[in-house]
Amino acid sequence: MAIKAVKGINDILPNVVGRWQLVESVARRIFSNFGFQEIRIPILEKTELFARSIGETTDIVEKEMYTFPDRNGQLLTLRPEATASVVRAFIQHKLHLEPGMRKFYTMGPMFRHERPQKGRYRQFHQIDVEVFGVDDPMIDAEVIYMLLVYLQELKLPDIKMHINSMGCPDCRLPFRQSLADYLEGVSDKLCSDCQRRRRTNPLRIFDCKVDSCGKLVDEAPVLLEHLCHECGENFQSVQDNLHSLAVAYTIDPLLVRGLDYYTRTTFEAITPHLGAQDAVGGGGRYDGLMKVLGGPDLPGTGFAIGMERLILLLDDKAGAPKERNRLFVACLGEEAKSRGFSLAQELRVSGLSVEMDYESKSLKAQMRRADKLASTHVLIVGDDELAKGAALLRDMEASSQEEIPLEGLVEQLLGRMK
Ligand code: ATP
Ligand code: MG
Fold it and tell me: Which ligand 1 atom is at minimum distance from the Cα of 268?
């Protein structure tokens, strides 16, 4: 039996790759305008990197990671997200010592063992953005703004920005207690996961996808109402900066993201067009993470976008490759085929997009193929023409044909087709 790909892990076929290239190239262009540089990080990391940064009691670390011992018995994990690796690389290469190198983006595959469904896969791709060393709330507004500019540039419909503040350890600790007290009162109505979370990490209950827990969460105390003075002012300042950039947003006190390292500003870009998987991207501030991972005490903020969800939202025609000035070389006869073969390579090297057929089909069949490839011109090389020292150039749009001498053919073609 033929071998199939692993469940939840998909191929990206040529008919959609234009859309992928579009989302990648628009990201590069826009992020670079905002001063971001690309960083490329490995797919495999030591498991402890994620356990320590994302949090032992989060869904990702508890049940979604692809973790295995390698042949030396070292525990490794296929990265479930990029922030931890970017922070690790930043610390490892002492990038904080270099001036002006603190805004990064990266893109690539991530791995989470989730139940595959539309918009949710086991290998998926993210575009990830990180800023280190700035705690001014202006930068929170700037990354939110940049995310929206990016999504607008892709013309994605009906994107809404939700924001919240997760406070700092000072306000989170007392809040955790009042949340735990509330949950104790309703504990018999919680799902089995939340029964456990109630003791280990009660904030995770806000992230629970079970309906009955959602109803209980609606009644629960919210962190936004328990922010300390500084966090309250900080959140107000983020909003003032968003206003100054004319960004529309909704405050969502129930927005708690699935990773423990977030502090203060958190946000998510939501769409109504993806069913249950409504988050296109999200992120926020993570001021303690760099230090937790053994680096300098630098604040951080960033976001990650799910690329598959972008692709699902894009118009089918988006990113279709532009019509190219494609030449098809049609050969009739053995000698012509050999001459056409070397001509095709020469023309490719000279900068034209060229295709030919190797199956020695009839001229009619070769013209059909040229048509299918949307070739604008066909160079017909026949043994008869060769004997005359010439070839025929057919302009497919004008349906006209002219004889071109083989002598200086490449220059002539380049001149006509550019
Ligand atoms: P969700 O609530 O949908 O599970 P999340 O909070 O786990 O999302 P993040 O860790 O914040 O997601 O990742 C950022 C983005 O990556 C998400 O907004 C989403 O677009 C995308 N994403 C996350 N998990 C998956 C997945 N399994 N398949 C496809 N895209 C995903
Ligand atoms: Mg998730």
Answer: 18
